[in-house]
Design brief:
- The complex is a heterodimer of chains A (about 270) and B (about 400).
- Chain A has nine helices and eleven strands.
- Chain A has about 270 residues and is α/β, with parallel strands linked by helices.
- Chain A folds into two domains: about 120 residues, Alpha-Beta Complex (Sufe protein. Chain: A); about 130 residues, FAD/NAD(P)-binding domain, CATH 3.50.50.
- Chain A has a five-stranded parallel β-sheet with strand order 4-11-5-6-7, with helices on one face. A three-stranded antiparallel β-sheet of chain A has the order 1-2-3.
- About 5% of the residues of chain A have low confidence.
- Classes of the chains: A alpha/beta (about 270), B alpha/beta (about 400).
- Chains A and B meet through α1, β2, β3, α2 and β10 of A and α8 and α10 of B.
């Protein structure tokens, strides 16, 4: 069975998704599940009146079944009490869509989970919003104080794609460069590099840019790709830097990113 | 109602009507077995050897250097496994590029289980292999290097002539999977000293189920399937004569028409690339901006997922391909896009357009009627794409 062999009902909900959007207000709770790395990220917004879901909307980045299950879930639970909605399972959603391809049952059928997350957040009075830079820093997860030598391979690849001082951007023309967030000088360097190569990745352990208003805007407007909540662990490659091992702090997941050079200022 | 548009030529091509015409007699009155000793067999042998000459001429090879197979996958297997098993006493190391077709990656995986070691060369951000990076991986025990002439996904053309030149005299054999490039860019094994080169018939508008392996004179392989000893003992099994005749005809047409066709395809491709990058915000071209196949345009769109894009394009009657994990059997994103340095979520948002012999300029117009709206619609519901 092809991964895209969807039922007519699934395709209908994909083509004409119901209740797309966001909600705001004191009577709104948000649930979020998934990870863009896996290709799915879902958010459910519920407006609670009395003990019932008076209104529900969603935002989804994902494949056909991710969209369809989100849409169907909103249809299924609108008007339900919170307890009733907690009883709605992934299988109920899949059944309501006349089934999903087996390979899609787990990966992109997360809408019920997002709904449950929203209900739990409502009951726990938890407002789901991006954490501020100060919160992250004070929780001890921030950068700055950490010993840069923890990046494995920085010394081994010195002069072979690893830099601890600002390199001459001209020498990195057209290369994939990863710059670790070391505050404003590193961000300025990333912007300089973006003038000579289309691929600059700025890795920060924070979930926001803590660079001052103007510089943050410059980075956002530039072609620099920012990797939030991520930590550079080690460098790899045959005789020169070819890969960077990244720790996704949010998902607690590790992966390799193919790069040609890495800059850790002060490392 | 708009006409359906097919822009997925890299995954399958229609057979050219001229090829079908050449094949038809071999399915009816000229049905012989080339090995049979009677007159019918002689005629079949004649047709087989004629097709071999046509394919050899397409590559600038000697007809004796061509072995017909059931397709490019078999040709790749025969080349790599056949060479490795025949020569394992002289080495146990193989080098491939990260941007190879999945069939090469899986052959390498099989070799690793069989006791060989495999090194993979990463490409630059445009999918291009740096010959020096490849050279750094070649060592005394290296038997063979395998690099595709061009990427079937992102269309980047590899510097095969430089790689071949660099390996000359080292004793290391160079195998090239030429499937994505054949019929689109000139391939001349006389000018470019590759040792082994795999072709597929369908990729030059011949019938599916046929392929060929070029084996430079003097390169020794062991067969991978045992049987009646056809094709100099390298590929047993009665020859698929109608298919082979079709491949021969397709090769002849490709030889004659490639230059004009490539220019025609490139003009449609360039117009699409310009229109997409100019019209759709936060869209990017994957692969090399210049050194790419004339028929390939490969994009990624921030904040949207490729399978969703593909489904909405399908609803509009447009057939395209994606590198998104959500459309693959393994749920892994394209290894080619990842090795170019893309993050998973970036690779998920990619869409591939490949033009072909029966594409027309109006196809580009139709895509541009549909695509910007489809991207905008998916972005509207995406939490990853900030709304203004």
């Amino acid at each position: 069975m092809k991964s895209t062999q969807y039922s007519e009902k699934t395709l209908d909900h994909f083509r004409n998704p119901r209740n797309v959007g966001t909600l705001t207000g004191d009577d709104v709770a948000i649930g979020r599940v998934g990870n863009p790395v896996c290709g799915d990220l879902m958010e459910m917004y519920i407006r609670v009146q009395g003990d019932r879901i008076a209104e529900i909307t969603f935002q989804t980045f994902g494949c056909g079944s991710a969209v369809a299950t989100s849409s169907m879930t909103t249809e299924l639970v609108r008007g339900m009490t919170l307890d009733e909605a907690l009883e709605v399972t992934r299988k109920d959603v899949a059944d309501a869509l006349d089934g999903l391809p087996p390979i899609k049952m787990h990966c992109s059928n997360l809408a019920a989970d997002a709904l449950h997350d929203a209900i739990r957040n409502w009951r726990g009075h938890k407002r789901l919003e991006p954490l501020s830079a100060e919160e992250v820093a004070s929780s001890g997860a921030g950068c700055g104080a950490r010993d840069v030598n923890l990046v494995e391979g920085l010394a081994e690849y010195a002069g072979k794609g690893a830099f601890t001082t600002a390199p001459d951007p001209a020498t990195l023309a057209d290369r994939r460069v990863l710059v670790v967030d070391k505050g404003e000088p590193s961000a300025r360097l990333a912007l300089e590099l973006a003038k000579v190569t289309p691929r600059v990745v700025f890795v920060t352990e924070l979930d926001t840019l803590a660079l001052g208003e103007e510089l943050s805007q410059d980075v956002k407007r530039s072609d620099v790709k920012v990797l939030f909540q991520s930590r550079l662990l080690s460098l790899g490659g045959e005789g020169e830097v070819e890969k960077a091992r990244i720790h996704d702090l949010d998902e607690d997941d590790e992966y390799d990113l193919f790069v040609d050079a890495v800059v850790v200022l002060g490392g | 109602m708009a006409e359906d548009v097919y822009l997925d030529y890299q995954s399958a091509k229609p057979v050219d009507p001229r090829v079908i015409e050449a094949m038809l007699p071999f399915l009816t009155e000229r049905f012989g077995n080339p090995a049979a000793l009677h007159a019918v067999g002689d005629k079949a042998m004649e047709a087989l050897e004629n097709a071999r000459r046509q394919v050899a001429a397409f590559l600038g090879a000697d007809p004796a250097e061509i072995v017909f197979t059931s397709g490019a996958t078999e040709a790749n297997n025969l080349a790599i496994l056949g060479y490795a098993s025949r020569n394992r006493r002289t080495g146990d190391h193989v080098v491939i590029s990260e941007v190879e077709h999945i069939s090469i990656h899986n052959i390498a995986k099989y070799l690793e289980k069989d006791g060989f070691t495999v090194s993979k060369v990463p490409p630059d951000q445009y999918g291009r292999i740096d010959p020096a990076k490849l050279r750094a991986r070649v060592r005394d025990e290296t038997l063979l290097v395998s690099v595709g002439w061009a990427s079937n996904e992102i269309g980047t053309v590899q510097p095969v002539p430089e790689i071949a030149e660099m390996l000359r005299g080292t004793g290391v054999v160079l195998h090239v999977d030429a499937v994505a490039a054949e019929g689109l860019v000139p391939i001349d094994v006389d000018a470019t000293p590759v040792d082994l080169l795999a072709l597929s018939s369908n990729d030059i508008y011949g019938p599916p189920g046929v392929g060929a392996l070029y084996i430079r004179d003097g390169v020794k392989l062991a067969p991978i399937a045992m049987g009646g000893g056809q094709e100099r003992g390298l590929r047993s099994g009665t020859e698929n004569l109608p298919g082979i005749v079709g491949m021969g005809a397709a090769a002849e047409i490709a030889s004659a028409e490639m230059a004009d066709e490539a220019a025609r395809l490139a003009s449609m491709r360039d117009r699409l690339i310009e229109a997409v990058l100019g019209t759709i915000p936060d869209s990017h071209l994957n692969g090399h901006p210049v050194t790419r196949l004339p028929n390939n345009a490969h994009f990624r769109f921030e904040g949207v997922e490729g399978e969703s894009l593909l489904l909405l394009m399908k609803d509009a009657g447009i057939s395209v391909s994606t590198g998104s994990a959500c459309s693959s059997k393994t749920l892994e994103p394209s290894h080619t896009l990842i090795s170019c340095g893309l993050l998973h979520e970036e690779a998920h948002g990619s869409l591939e357009f490949t033009f072909g012999r029966f594409s027309k300029p109006a196809d580009v117009d139709r895509v541009m009627e549909v695509l910007p709206e489809v991207v905008a619609r998916l972005r509207h519901m995406s939490p990853l794409y900030p709304s203004e």
